[in-house]
Specification:
The chain is α+β, with helices and mostly antiparallel strands and 611 residues long. The protein has 13 helices and 30 strands. The strands form 6 sheets. The protein has an 11-stranded mixed sheet with strand order 9-3-4-8-5-10-11-14-15-16-17, sandwiched between helices. Strands 18, 19, 20, 21, 23, 24, 25, 26, 28, 29 and 30 form an 11-stranded mixed sheet that branches. α4 packs across α5 and α7 runs antiparallel to α8. The chain starts with a helix and ends with a helix.
C-alpha cells in the first residue's frame, strides 16, 4: 500500500512538472488515467548492438542471414525490471542509393494470337538490374534512433528495438521489396526477444534478451509500417500489437491496379526492383545482384498480371493468422500508399475477429504525429499501455474509427469504418460528356455512345478542369441540395469499346465547386485486357463492346451543399499509368454504364442531395 501511494504521488508530481523524469529503481512504470508516464530517463540508458540469426538464406551464400539490431532500454532492466518492446524495423536506416526509374513513355502490350506478347514500339520494359544498382551510401555508421518516438517510449517504460531489414546496412541477406525473406528476418527479432532465436554481438558472443517480458509492439510509416503487417500475418507469438502507418497490405496494389501498371504517387516508373536497388545498402555490392535481377523478371511490367510472385507479397490473404491487435493509420490524401491498402487490410481483420481500430487523417503519406495532435499521442500511449502492459484503460471498448474532417480541425469518433449506415447508391450518365453531360438517378434506355481520344501528355486534373475536351468524358450532378458523404469504395461499371487492342482506362470522381474549380476526390484504373481477372490477360478486339469495371480508391469525403459530383472517364493518367503515344480511341455506351457510390445514408441520402 505504501509503495502504491509513493508511485501515485510520483506520477502526479511528474505529470505536473514538479519532478523531472529520472531513472528509477526496478519498481516499474507508472500509469495515470490509463497512460504510461515519463518516469524513466531517456538518456541514461543501456544500448546494445547485435545480430539476430534468421532462418533464411536470401543472399544464397550457404549461411543463415543475420539481422542487425540495436536495443535501447532502461538501466533498471539490469536490476531485474522486465519491460515490453516497441520495435521499429526499416530498410532505410542506412539511407539509399541513386536509382533510375523505369521509362513509362512506352506503348502498351498486346497479346498475339499465340498467347505471347507483342511490344508495339519495341521498347525494352525490363531494365538490366546490374546497370541500375548504383554505389551504396554504405551501412549505418552511427547509432540508430527515432527522434520522434525513442525518448517518448523509453521514458515511459518501453524498451525500443531497431532492426535493419535484410540486405540493408549491417544486415546480411538481400532486399526483395516485401518478399517472404524480409518477413522472416523481421520475425526473427521477435523470436529472439522471446528466447526462440539466437543472437551474437560484434565479438561473436551469444546475447540473450533476459530483460524483456517478450511482449512486442511494432510500428512504423510506409515500408516501416508494411513490415509490421507482414510479420503479423505470420501469427508469430509475442507480437501483441502493431501500428502500421501509411502501410502496404498487398504490394500488387502498390505497384499495379487490376492488371494495369500503376505508380505510387510522385514515383512514376518505380517498381519492386527499383525500391530493392534503393535500399540495397549492405557493404557487399555484388551478392544481391542476381536476386534483384530475378525481381525484374518476375514483377512483370509487361502484362501487369497478378501472379504467385505478387501473392507472396499479399498479407491480406493471411489475415486469419493475425494474433496481434491492429491500430491502422492512414492519410485520406495519401496517393503514395493508396487507401485501398488499409481499407482491404482493415476489412479482412474485422472479418477474422482481430481486435482493431482505424485512424484516418487529412494529410498524405506521413505519420499523424507531424500534425502535433495531442490526441494521437494519447491514443498511441493508451494503445501500447493496454496491449503491452495489460492496463485496463478501456481503449479496446471505444469507437473503432477516428476520422479527421476536411476542415483539418474537427476529429470525429465513429463506431467503425466505413461509416455505419453506408450503402451503395447508383447514378447514371447522360449525353454531353465531351463538354458536361448529366449524372442523375434516372438510367438512360436510349442507346447513346460517346467517345474520347487518349492523350497521356495531359494530366487528369487538367482534363477534369477543361470546359470541354476530346480527351475525356465528364458527367456531373446538379448542385447538391445537402451535404453528401462518401465512406468506402466507389465503382464504375462501363459498357466500353476500343479502336485499338490495348488501352488504359482511368475513372475519376470529382468535387466541382460553385466557382467552377474542381478537386479529384478519388480515382481508379484498370487494364481492359484484365476485365475478367487481374491474373488473366485476354485480347481486346477493336470495335467490340466489353463490360469493364473500375474500382476507385476508397475514400471518406464530404461534398458540400452547392457543389456537384462528377464522374470523369479518360484513358491514360499522366501521373500514374504507362503513357503510350496519343491516339487510342475509347467509346462509352451510356445505357450500359453505372456509377456506384458509397453514400452514408444510402440511396435516400443521395436522392435528397441531388433531387
Amino acid at each position: 500500500m505504501k509503495r502504491a501511494r509513493r508511485t501515485a504521488l510520483l506520477a502526479a508530481l511528474v505529470t505536473l512538472g514538479f519532478v523531472p523524469a529520472v531513472a528509477r529503481a526496478a519498481e516499474g512504470p507508472v500509469f495515470v488515467d490509463g497512460e504510461a508516464q515519463p518516469v524513466f530517463s531517456s538518456t541514461d540508458v543501456v544500448r546494445e548492438s547485435l545480430w539476430v540469426r534468421a532462418p533464411v538464406d536470401s543472399d544464397r551464400d550457404g549461411r543463415d542471414d543475420e539481422v542487425y539490431t540495436e536495443v535501447v532500454r532502461q538501466k533498471a532492466t539490469d536490476q531485474g525490471l522486465k519491460v515490453p518492446v516497441v520495435f521499429f524495423n526499416s530498410p532505410y536506416f542506412s539511407g539509399g542509393n541513386e536509382v533510375t526509374n523505369h521509362n513509362v513513355d512506352v506503348e502498351l502490350y498486346v497479346p498475339n494470337r499465340h498467347g505471347g506478347l507483342d511490344r508495339r514500339d519495341g521498347s525494352l520494359l525490363k531494365a538490366d538490374a546490374d546497370e541500375r544498382i548504383a554505389a551504396a551510401v554504405g551501412p549505418n555508421a552511427g547509432r540508430i534512433t527515432s527522434a520522434r518516438y525513442e525518448a517518448y517510449f523509453v521514458s515511459r517504460g518501453f524498451a525500443v528495438v531497431y532492426a535493419e531489414s535484410l540486405g540493408t546496412g549491417q544486415s546480411t541477406g538481400c532486399p526483395t521489396s516485401g518478399g517472404r525473406n524480409e518477413t522472416i528476418g523481421s520475425r526473427s527479432v521477435i523470436d529472439w526477444l522471446n528466447g526462440r532465436a539466437s543472437a551474437r554481438d560484434a565479438d561473436g558472443k551469444n546475447v540473450k534478451a533476459t530483460w524483456t517480458t517478450g511482449k512486442v509492439g511494432m510500428m512504423g510509416v510506409s515500408y516501416n509500417g508494411t513490415l509490421p503487417n507482414a510479420v503479423a500475418s505470420t501469427g508469430v507469438r509475442g507480437l501483441e500489437t502493431i501500428v502500421p502507418i501509411a502501410a502496404i497490405s498487398s504490394w500488387y496494389d502498390y505497384y499495379r491496379a487490376d492488371g494495369a501498371v500503376v505508380a505510387p504517387g510522385t514515383y512514376q516508373g518505380e517498381d519492386l526492383d527499383v525500391l530493392a536497388d534503393y535500399v540495397y545498402t549492405r557493404a557487399d555490392r555484388e551478392i544481391c545482384k542476381p536476386v534483384i535481377a530475378d525481381l525484374v523478371k518476375k514483377q512483370d511490367r509487361v502484362t501487369g498480371d497478378y501472379s504467385a510472385f505478387w501473392d507472396e507479397r499479399n498479407y491480406v490473404k493471411d489475415a486469419s493468422k493475425v494474433r496481434a491487435s491492429v491500430l491502422a493509420v492512414h492519410g485520406l490524401n495519401d496517393w503514395n500508399v493508396k487507401l485501398k491498402n488499409v481499407s482491404q487490410w482493415y476489412a479482412a481483420l474485422r472479418r477474422n475477429g482481430v481486435e482493431h481500430k482505424i485512424w484516418l487523417h487529412q494529410s498524405g503519406h506521413t505519420d499523424p504525429d507531424v500534425l502535433r495532435s495531442v490526441e494521437w499521442r494519447r491514443t498511441l500511449n493508451r494503445w501500447f499501455s493496454h496491449y503491452l502492459y495489460g492496463v485496463d484503460n478501456g481503449i479496446q471498448r471505444e469507437p473503432k474509427a477516428t476520422i479527421q474532417r476536411e476542415d483539418g480541425v474537427t476529429w470525429t469518433d465513429e463506431a467503425d469504418w466505413p461509416a455505419p449506415g453506408t450503402s451503395t447508391a447508383r447514378v447514371y450518365p447522360s449525353a454531353g460528356g465531351s463538354a458536361k453531360g448529366g449524372l442523375g438517378l434516372a438510367q438512360p434506355h436510349r442507346p447513346v455512345v460517346e467517345s474520347l481520344t487518349d492523350d497521356a501528355t495531359v494530366t487528369a486534373e487538367s482534363l477534369a478542369n477543361l470546359p470541354s475536351s476530346p480527351n475525356r468524358l465528364s458527367y456531373g450532378t446538379r448542385a447538391l441540395a445537402t451535404d453528401l458523404r462518401f465512406s468506402g469504395t466507389a465503382k464504375v461499371s462501363l459498357g466500353v469499346s476500343f479502336d485499338k487492342p490495348a488501352a488504359n482506362v482511368t475513372a475519376l470522381l470529382v468535387d466541382r465547386a460553385p466557382d467552377g474549380t474542381s478537386r479529384v476526390i478519388t480515382r481508379g484504373w484498370t487494364d481492359p485486357q484484365n476485365r475478367v481477372s487481374p491474373s488473366v490477360t485476354l485480347p481486346v478486339k477493336p470495335g467490340k463492346q466489353y463490360k469493364v469495371d473500375v474500382e476507385l480508391e476508397p475514400k471518406d469525403y464530404v461534398v458540400k451543399a452547392g457543389h456537384a459530383v462528377e464522374f470523369v472517364l479518360l484513358s491514360s493518367d499522366y501521373d500514374y499509368t504507362l503513357r503510350p503515344k496519343p491516339g487510342a480511341g475509347v467509346s462509352l455506351d451510356l445505357a450500359s454504364t453505372t456509377v456506384e457510390l458509397p453514400v452514408v445514408g444510402g440511396p435516400s441520402a443521395l436522392r435528397k442531395a441531388v433531387g
